[in-house]
């Protein structure tokens, strides 16, 4: 599972700016998606050699609130789950009493702390850092998050502090199985679905939890295919004391999505689609995961309600119109066969291998059909294409002036390739390269 790094510090020191720099999307695919903003507080940093979850804990105001703020459910969870704490400070403010109070709190956790002294742009670094040296932390690094300076160095200092085994290898029994994350808001019906699937089918091995908060992997065999369900719902942990905290953890959700090949986002048909649902879907796409939308609680809805629901989904999920919506009742077990079929299809599409000549032929046809708009009188040229990896299928297109290609044209190409190769249920990545 992905290790976790928490950003903590007073309000306004630049945590969310740093968060944005660390979790920047590498792909315009979703960055320009209308209606979906990236989750403000949780993301995955992939700028270094190993990915990890970054949590922007929001502002701790220090003295008065101190640990009060820390006990806010998600903040506490973040600090508890983090392997490394990045203590963000403001070089222009210098050391304030609140900073010392926060540091005391952080020290109590016993976790490694890196001080990131932000807003050093235009300042003398030596001077800027000197004051913070009094904290006696082993790493005190200068940063200018707004100018994206020092973030790579910060990541380089973070990585060695993350536990080796946190990035665990695939369990041998998982090989050949489709890894499926079932995610969604609380009460969408995730536990009911998992129990239903397990109750109907033979459970091969009962899985043993690693640490308490790791998502649990549940092997499942159905119609001759093997799956590993990555359970974020805490199905087997409902009885535990920490139920409230366990019930919904964004961190666990991100970890599950990272570990999965196919993400099933469960939506409650009786509730309006929430931003949280869209964020989850957007994140899964961002991570390149194959996607199935399971619309649950379809039982007991009348014709009118069903139509309303379908219309709302069509409207708001346009940006993932390639993902299949499956209407199910986890409670009654209806639609599950179709759900599993959609999972397999999405997985197979995500792993489809397509040769260079077929890709190039398709590119030529797309280019003939509709050419990218001129840039200062010159048309970007697209010459040939080759595969750049699977899961998600990645198509590398060589040409010239490709950096001027508009997002709309990229989407046109995506859709063209998707249609031609029936890449349903999976994001498609297009990478442009100029020259040979
Ligand atoms: P947060 O409350 O800790 O999340 O802080 P924000 O990321 O919202 O930043 C607070 C303010 O500091 C904003 O106006 C940012 O533009 C500014 N800021 C953030 N990073 C830098 C930096 O590296 N240099 C300068 N000069 N300003 C910064
Ligand atoms: P989770 O938080 O996503 O794991 O959601 P649960 O599986 O705990 O379900 C939340 C509530 O929704 C429970 O009361 C379930 O009985 C109910 N529920 C789950 N699936 C269905 C369904 O398909 N139809 C109906 N009517 N209720 C359901």
UniProtKB/TrEMBL annotation:
It comes from the Bacteria. SUPFAM superfamilies: P-loop containing nucleoside triphosphate hydrolases. GTP 1 binds at residues 9-16, 56-60, 118-121. One of its GO terms (molecular function) is GTP binding. Residues 3-166, 178-351 form the EngA-type G domain. PROSITE patterns: G_ENGA. GO terms for biological process: ribosome biogenesis. Keywords: GTP-binding, Nucleotide-binding, Repeat, Ribosome biogenesis. GTP 2 binds at residues 184-191, 231-235, 296-299. InterPro entries: AAA+_ATPase, G_ENGA, GTP-bd, GTPase_Der, KH_dom-like, KH_dom-like_a/b, P-loop_NTPase, Small_GTP-bd. Belongs to the TRAFAC class TrmE-Era-EngA-EngB-Septin-like GTPase superfamily. EngA (Der) GTPase family. HAMAP family: GTPase_Der (MF_00195). Associates with the 50S ribosomal subunit. GTPase that plays an essential role in the late steps of ribosome biogenesis. This is GTPase Der. It comes from Dyella marensis. The lineage of its organism: Bacteria, Pseudomonadati, Pseudomonadota, Gammaproteobacteria, Lysobacterales. The gene is der.
């Amino acid at each position: 599972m992905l290790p976790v790094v928490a950003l903590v510090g007073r309000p306004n020191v630049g945590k969310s700016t740093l968060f944005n720099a660390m979790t920047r999307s590498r792909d315009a695919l979703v960055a320009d998606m209308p209606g979906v903003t990236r989750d403000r507080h949780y993301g995955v940093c992939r700028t270094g050699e190993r990915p990890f979850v970054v949590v922007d804990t929001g502002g701790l105001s220090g003295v008065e609130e101190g640990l009060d703020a820390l006990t806010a459910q998600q903040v506490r969870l973040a600090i508890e789950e983090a392997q490394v704490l990045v203590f963000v400070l403001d070089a222009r403010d210098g050391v304030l009493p609140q900073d010392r109070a926060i540091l005391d709190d952080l020290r109590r956790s016993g976790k490694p702390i890196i001080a990131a002294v932000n807003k050093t742009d235009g300042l003398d670094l030596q001077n800027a850092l000197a004051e913070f040296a009094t904290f006696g932390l082993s790493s005190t690094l200068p940063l200018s998050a707004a100018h994206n300076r020092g973030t790579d160095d910060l990541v380089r200092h973070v990585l060695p502090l993350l536990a080796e085994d946190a990035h665990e290898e695939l369990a041998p029994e998982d090989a050949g199985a489709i890894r499926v994350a079932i995610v969604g808001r609380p009460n969408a019906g995730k536990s009911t679905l998992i129990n239903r699937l397990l109750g109907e089918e033979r459970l091969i091995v009962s899985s043993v939890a690693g640490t308490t908060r790791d998502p649990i992997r549940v092997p499942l065999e159905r119609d001759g295919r093997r799956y590993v369900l990555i359970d974020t719902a805490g199905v087997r942990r409902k009885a535990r004391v920490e139920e409230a905290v366990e019930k919904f953890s964004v961190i666990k959700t991100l970890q599950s999505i990272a570990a999965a090949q196919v993400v099933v986002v469960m939506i409650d048909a009786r509730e309006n689609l929430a931003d949280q649902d869209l964020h989850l879907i957007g994140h899964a796409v961002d991570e390149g995961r194959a996607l199935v939308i399971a619309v649950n609680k379809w039982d007991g809805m009348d014709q009118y309600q069903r139509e309303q629901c379908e219309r709302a989904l069509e409207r708001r999920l346009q940006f993932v119109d390639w993902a299949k919506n499956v209407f199910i009742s986890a409670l009654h077990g209806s639609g599950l066969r179709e759900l599993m079929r959609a999972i397999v299809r999405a997985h197979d599409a995500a792993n489809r291998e397509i040769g260079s000549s077929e890709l190039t032929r398709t590119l030529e046809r797309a280019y003939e059909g509709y050419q990218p708009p001129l840039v200062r009188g010159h048309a970007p040229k697209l010459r040939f294409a080759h595969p750049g990896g699977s899961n998600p299928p990645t198509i590398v297109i060589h040409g010239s002036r490709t950096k001027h290609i508009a997002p709309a044209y990229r989407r046109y190409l995506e859709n063209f390739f998707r249609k031609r190769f029936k890449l349903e249920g999976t994001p498609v990545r297009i990478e442009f390269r100029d020259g040979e």
